[in-house]
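Form 12-C: Joint structure prediction
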Amino acid sequence: MWSLSGITSEINHWLYESFSPFWAVTIEMALVCVLVITLFAVLGLILVLMERKVSAYMQIRLGPNRVGPKGMFQTVADTVKLLVKEGLTPAGADKVMFNLAPFIAMISAMLLMAPIAFARNFQIWDLNIGVLYLSAVSSLSVIAILMAGWSSNNKYSLLGAMRSGAQIVSYELSAGLSLLSIVVLTGSLSVSEIIQSQADGWWIFKGHLPVILSFIIFIIAVTAETNRAPFDMAEAESELTAGFHTEYSGMKFALFFLAEYVNVFIVCAIAATIFLGGWMPLHIGNWEGFNKIMDYVPSSMWFFGKTFFLIFVIMWFRWTFPRLRIDQLLNLEWKYLLPISMVNILLVTLIAIMKWHF
Amino acid sequence: MNITEILFWFLTALAILSALMVVFSRNPVHSVLWLILVFFAISGHYIMLNAQFLAIVNLIVYAGAIMVLFLFVIMLMNMNSDSEPQKNKWLKMAGTVAGGSLLLILVAALKNSEVQYQKVEGAQGTIGLIHNLGKTLFTDYVVPFEISSVLFLSAMVGAVVIGKKD
Amino acid sequence: MNVIILSAILGVIMMYTGVMSKNKSTARYVATAGILALIGANWLEFAGVNFFNIDTRGMLEFTSFGLVFNLIILVCTLVYFLLSGKDLEEVGANAADYFALIFFILTGIAIVSAFKTMLMLFIGIEIISIPLYILAGSDKKNLRSNEAALKYFLMGSFSTGLMLMGIALLYGATGTFYTDGMYLGLGNITVMKMAGLVLLMISLGFKVSAVPFHFWTPDVYDGSPTVFTSFMATIVKAAFFIAFLLLFENAFGRMHSEWQFAMALITAATLIIGNITAVFQQSVKRMLAYSSIAQAGFMLLAIFALNNIGKQGLILYTAAYSLPTIGIFAVLMRMKDYTYEGFNGFAKHQPLLAALLAVFLFSLAGIPLTGGFFAKYYMLVAAMKNGAMFWLVIIGVCCAAISVYYYFRIIQAMYFREGADPGIQVSEGFKTVLVLTAVLVIILGVHPDWLLHLLDN
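Section 2 - Result
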C-alpha cells in the first residue's frame, strides 16, 4: 500500500543528505509553496466545475457540456478568459488597497492550509495549537473583504463588505465554540492529536447528541463565514450587484473567486478533520477485522472523500434554502446559535468530565 | 547572524515602521491597516519566543476582532484627510515637545534598565505554551481571572444599556 | 471577600430583576435590600466571619482599614439609594441595569480597598471605571450626556493606558506584581522604576481629578445626569483615593522622599485651581464639580503625608465629604434651576430642607461641629506631622477659607434673598433620611473617634 508519508520522508532524507540543513529547509519550504499553489489551482478548477454540475443536477439540467468531455474543461476555458481580461481599477479607488485586497484574501486562505492533515503523516505544520490557529487565520479573510469593499469607492461594495464583516465576526463565535467542544473532549488543540483520538471511532459517533449538535452548528456557521448562500449577504446579486467585488474584473476578480472556493474547501476539511476523523478510516471500537478492512482504503481517500461530501452538502444548501435577510441572519446567530452553542459546550464539558463518551 | 536574528530584526523593523505609519498616515483606514500589521509583527515575536498560544490569541483578539470593528466604524464614518480638524500650530509644537520628552525619558529608562543584561528565553522557553499558561492561570492567578469576569459582565451590561432602545 | 463576591452576585440579581419585574420600583427595593445585605456581610467580615474561604495567594488582603472604608462606602451608597433611588429610575428605561452597574462598581471598590498586587489594582480600577462611562452617558437623548460619556471614556481609557504602561515598567524592573514584593527602596531607584511611578501617579491623579489632570471633571460632572454625578463625585472618587493611597503606601512608601515634592506640587495646584475656579461658577452643579476637585486637593494631603493620621483622615474625609455631597445633590436634583438664583428664598418655602442643606454646606466648608471640620483638621495635621513642606499646610488653610465663600453663597441665597417657591415635592421618607444623614454628619463633627476606633481592631 503506497502512502504519501513515505514519499515525503524519502524527499526529506534525500534533501538532508545532499544539502546543508539551511538549504534543505529552504528547498522544502519552496516545495511546499509550489504544492500549495498547485493545490489551489486544481481545487479552484474542480470546485467551480463541481458547483456548476451540482447546481445543474439540482435544477434538472445539464450544466456545462461543450468544452471537453461532458464539459470537463469548462473552468479551464473560463480561467483563460479571466486571465486575458483587462483588470480595471476605478478612478476614485484607493489604488494600493484595491490591488492588495485580492492577494490578502488568497494569502489568508493559503495560510489555513498549514495545519490540515491531508493524509497519514502528511501535514505541513503540526503546531500544538492547530485548532486555535485555524480559527484565528480564518477570521483574517474579513480584512481583505473590508479592504476590497472600502477601497472600491462604491456604495454597493462598501455595503457588501460591511455585511460580510458583521457576518464573519459574529458567526466566528459559534464556529469557534463548536470546535472547542471537540477540544474539550480530546484535551488537545493539536490537529494530529485530535485525529489520533478518533482511532476508535469518529467524534460524531462517539460524542452523543452534543457533538452532533456542534457539528451542525459548525456547518451552519462556516457556511455563513464563507459567505455562501443562504448566507451570501455580502454579494447578494439582487440587492448589491455583486457586493464587495463589484468593481473587480479580470485576474483580481478570479483571485477572490478562487479564495472563496478554497475557503469552502478548507472549512469542510476542518469539519471533516475535527468531527469526522480527517484521514482516519472508519473504525468501530474493537472490531479488529472491520477496522483492518477499512485500513486498506488509503488515508488520503478518506480525507478527500469526507471533505468533498461536506462540500457537496454545502452546495446542496445553496440550491435549497432561500437567502436570509441581514437582520434575520444576525438574529439567527446571536439569539439562537450562540446561546445553543454555549449551553452545548457545558453539556460537552459534562460528558468529558463524567467520561460518558465512548 | 543566524536565521533567528535575521527574523528578529526583520520583525522589529516591521513593527516599528508600521507603528510609525499608524501615526503618520493621513487616512484613518490606512492607519488601522498598518496597526493590523503591527499586531502581526508582534505575533511573530511571540512565536519566536515559543509563545504560540499568545501569538494566536493576539491575532484572534486584535487583528481578527477588534481591528475589524475599528475598520467597520471608520469605514462607515467615511473620514478622510479633508475632514481632519486643523490644529493650532503652537498646540502641535507643544505636543511634539511633550511627546519627545516622554520618549526621551522612556528611552533613558530602558537604556539603563536592569533588564538589559538578562537574556530572553528563546525558542527553548516553555512559559508561553498553552499547557503552562493554563496551569498558571488556573492556579496562581485564578482569583484575578475569575474577577475579571465581573469586568466583562459589567462591560456587557453597559453595552446593552447603551445600545437598547428606550 | 464577602463584599466582592456578594456584590457581584447582587449585580446579576439586579439584571434579572429588570427582566422579571415590570414594576419600576421593584429594582429599587431589591437594590436597597441588597445594600443592607452587603453592609451586614461587610460587618461580619469585620467581625471575622468569612462566607468564602478563598486562597487569593496574597493578592487581596482585607485589613481593618479597607473594611472600615468599605463600610463607609456602603453606608453612603445606602443613603444614596434612599435619597436618589427614585430619580435614578427616571433617567431611562433601564433602572435595574443602572443598579446592576452600581453593584459592579461596589465590587471594584471592594477590590481596590484590599489589593496587594498591581493586577488586582488594575482590574479593580477598570471595574469601577467602565460602568461609570455608561452611567455618564445614560441619558441617551441628551447631547451633553453623550459628550460627557465620550469625553470620560476617551480620557479614562487614555489614563488606563498610562497606568498599564507604568505597571509594565515596574513589572519589568522588579519582576513581580506584588506591591510588597517590589522592594522599591531608596537605595535601588532606577529611571525605569521612577518612570513607572510617574506614570502611575499621572493616571491615578487623573482618576481622582487632581490638577493638572482635571480638565475632564467639570464637563463630565456637569453633563452626566445629576443623579449619577452625585455618585461619581462622592463614592467613586473616594474609592480612587483609597487605591491611590494604598498603592503609594505599599509599593512606593519606602521611596517617599523621592516623589513627595511632585505630590506636593499636585496637591497645591489642585487646592488652588479647584477653589479659585469654583468661586467663579454660576451653576451650583458646576460649582460642586469644582468643589469636588478642591476637596480632592485636601484628600491628596493624606497621600502626600503618608502617615497614620493621614489614613485616619482619609476615612473621616470619605464620610464627611460623601454624605453631605450626596445630600446636596439629592436636593439639587429636584430643583428646576441649577443656578444660585434658583435657591433664592429657599428657606422661606422649605425651611427644613434649607436647614439641612446649610448643615451639609457647613460640613463641606469645614465649619466646626460638622464632620468636615475634623476631616480637614486631620488632613492638615497629617501634613504638618510630616514635617516637610510647611507651605502646603498654609495653602490648605487659605483654600479652606476661600471655599467658605462659594459654599456660603448658597446659604446666603437661601436665607437672605427673596425668591419664588421652587415648588419641589419631597416625601416624608426623604426628609427623614436627610435628617438622619445630617445627624450623622454632626455626630462625626462632635465625636469622630467612634469611627476611628473601628480602625484599631
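Section 3 - Comments
Chain C has a mean pLDDT of 89. Residues 143-174 of chain C form the longest helix (32 residues).
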